[in-house]
Specification:
The complex is a heterodimer of chains A (111) and B (115). Chain A is mostly beta strands. Chain A is 0% helix and 57% strand. Chain A starts with a strand and ends with a strand. The chains are: A mainly beta (111), B mainly beta (115).
């Protein structure tokens, strides 16, 4: 089955800095890569997703890039704000279309 | 608010007991997914139902079972509970059976504590 590795496990940045979270996946058949944000005690919420026919997608301060050859994808958050502090999960979806999640990255944005 | 509801919010029970968690998907969504989230295992997919039928199975223990009813709500049954079953259980729903065709909307979760 699919295996998703996510790094780093913790990321601490100053407000206004950029944050980058990286994920690698194992199954070359994976073709859907969502990112979820989970605030403490809350539900995971989809913030952006990318499909295998696209290399990059942007939504305001958030962007995701995908390198299918290397089997990795990344989340980029620019101009970070304290409210960006949360746990971020990447996921990869293979033939079964069920997402396999990474272990999560705890992002801390210091004011 | 995602439109997905889960009850109860919290559940405290003893080892060996059986509990039922309930999920109501967003209006119009046919797919329901169950996930277990624990500190050491992250977010693990358990099982998916689509329009009443089991569609996919993940790392679901034999002590666990689920079903989706004609009104599309779903129940996750956990039996012979062990301490290690303590976790947050999320249900998610989507319009289509395949995640690539529809965003998954997560419910608020049920926190299960087994003592």
């Amino acid at each position: 089955g699919e295996n998703v590795e996510q790094h780093p496990s913790t990321l601490s940045v100053q407000e206004g800095d950029s944050a980058v979270i990286k994920c690698t996946y194992s199954d070359s058949a994976s073709n859907y890569f969502p990112w979820y944000k989970q605030e403490l005690g809350k539900r995971p919420q989809l913030i952006i997703d990318i499909r295998s026919n696209v290399g990059e997608k942007k939504d305001q301060r958030i962007a995701v890039t995908l390198n299918k050859t290397a089997k990795h994808f990344s989340l980029h958050i620019t101009e970070t704000q304290p409210e960006d502090s949360a746990v971020y999960f990447c996921a990869a979806s293979e033939r079964s279309y069920i997402p396999t999640f990474g272990r999560g990255t705890s992002l801390i944005v210091h004011p | 608010d995602s439109g997905v509801t889960q009850t109860p919010k919290h559940l405290i029970t003893a080892t060996g007991q059986r509990v039922t968690l309930r999920c109501s998907p967003r209006s119009g969504d046919l797919s329901v997914y169950w996930y277990q989230q624990s500190l050491d295992q992250g977010l693990q997919f358990l099982i998916q139902y689509y329009n009443g039928e089991e569609r996919a199975k993940g790392n679901i223990l034999e002590r666990f079972s689920a079903q989706q009813f004609p009104d599309l709500h779903s129940e996750l049954n956990l039996s012979s509970l062990e301490l290690g079953d303590s976790a947050l259980y999320f249900c998610a729903s989507s319009t289509y059976g395949r995640t690539e065709k529809g965003e998954q909307y997560f419910g608020p979760g049920t926190r299960l504590t087994v003592t």
